[in-house]
Amino acid sequence: MSETWLIIGGWVAAGLTIFIFSFLYKDNPFFKIAEHLYLGAGMGWWFQVMFYNIWKPKVWEPVKILVNGLQIIQSYHIWKPEFWKAVWTAGDWTIFIPTLLGLSLITQFFQKISWVSRYGFTFIMGYGAGLVIPVSVSTDFMTQILGTIKPLFKVGTEMSWASFFYTFNTFLIAFGLVCVLIYFFFSAEQKGLVKKASNIGIYFLMLYFGAAFGNTVMGRFSLLYGRFDDLYKYSSVKYFYAAQIIAAALAVYFILNHFISAKKSRAAQDNSGS
Amino acid sequence: MNLNAAAEILFLDEFSAADMPYDAGEEALLKWKTSPLDSAQATYQVFASTMQTGGWIKVDEFSADKKFASDIKLPFWAWKARKDLHAVAIPLETHFGKLEKNKEYFFKIISIKGRQKFESEIVSTQVKRNWFNFARLNNLVFVLVIFGIFIWTVSHAKRKGLFIRRIAGLDAIDEAIGRATEMGRPIYYITGIGSMSSISTIASTFILGEVAGKVAQYDSYVKVPHYNPIVMTVCKEVVRQAYLQAGRPDSYREDMNFFVSSDQFSYAASVDGMITREKPAACFLIGHFMAESLLLAEVGATVGAIQIAGTDSEHQLPFFFTTCDYTLIGEELYAAGAYLSKEPMLLSTLRLQDYGKFFVIVAVVIGIALMTLSVQYKWDLTDKILENIFKTY
Hints:
The complex is a heterodimer. By secondary structure, chain A is mostly helical. In chain A, about 75% of the residues lie in helices and about 0% in strands. In chain A, α1 runs antiparallel to α7 and α4 (about 95-105) crosses α5. The longest helix of chain B has about 35 residues, at about 345-375. In chain B, strands 1, 4, 5, 7, 8 and 9 form a 6-stranded mixed β-sheet that branches.
């Protein structure tokens, strides 16, 4: 890539980053430009991913192989068993099942035959539910139980801090699980012992959420540092101070916009007053 | 080297090859009897080929005191865990690429002890995909039991009705819609970025139906921006049906549900822009969410919308707690459809979930007690049975 294109790329990257960040102040035309560009680029990206990773290898190429394979049937008579054998072995005919189901979704654009799309949607929902049920039973149910069932004491270990903490941890995990599950009982009224256990369950949940929050925020900060690092890179003389110039231009826009808006609103108030 | 000279030392008794049971036709299983002379000093080298006459590839090598039938990770009802039998699973795809149907694969083993070697006879087998994974019988039994209890709870719910405790987040739906009606601003209902195979998205469509019904009654307006086109089509039907049931088909508009983007962050950026410009009075963020959760919820909070969120993505729940007025935590989201509609069929699923939770509590308490006793009194069998019952294969 030539140096000029690198500099242009730097300006575009720095510009779009600052435009998106400008939303932190307030909605503005620059954010709208970045937003719509992002939306269009995102959809364009997904379209080519679907086209090259799904449609081409999973529909177009198998159909092409099938069509090529069917060339041979011209040499057989339709009533001969060889004809049907050649038809059957020409390629993968099952490809038409998902393809037709997929195409059925398009029929919703045509009022008269839109009912056909229900076959595709029904299949997707049925397939999804069918796939989720056994997986949920094994991961949410059985694995959860197995992960919690641990002996309270380790075999052959003498009493020490390590073995004490092992016992404490095992007990705490089991106790926490039971209390959290009690919180999620919907068909039992929460009073008495159930209420107490449920309240302890909420504390366990909040402890977990707190830890998850901290963990995720740290991850997000590392992403933010990444953007700042890029902005710092584009603020160098090599990129003709792209980051500073764009940030300064945006600041000027906001200041001017503030005064113009204030002037307009004053004029509007005067008009309505008179 | 003295090949076959030490046959009496390292002879492979009852060496056989077979298709690995209960798999998807990827592995072959080799078995032979253990010898009293098996030791860490002796080695087995396993060779495989697609021809009987040559092209041998070394597929495994291990010392003779390792790899027994008891090391194969299958449950006791599907596999006899013996210590007197060597058993080796050979992943054929790793060595031969994509496997052909009805193709014969050949195997031989060379056992080595010191300077002596013994080459076994050549055995062969075909591998096939098995229709039934017997190792997952426990999974099937659990599903069937759950199904049986479900049928029972449905009939019970129809006859006697079921009690459901109060869920604050769902009681606030009326308040949120009422506020939007009074302020004359729209309601945003965001189903997240899950597909129709996600349980939280399915639960979200149920709640959308109830919300849309109430919106129709109050003559307010709901906007549902979508990430997934299939979820959008399902939601269109749900909203249309809700308006019909509320007796307001004239108020229904096709553009209530609209597609935004299938790209996570451009979807978030676009919906953020819409929320900022339209300033909705209420935002529902119910479904499957990932990193965009805070981006959406924070903007909703900034414009002063009353926000009700619900997801089973536990990593996103903390963000909803900090930015939303009410948050449905995981299971509460699944309960929402039943809670709002009070339909016996849905109510019975709640009771079923409670039975499931009760079973988990009982299994954990009894399991821990049994495991502790099995450690103290060396009940190895109890330990193994418990592990096999709850293990997923």
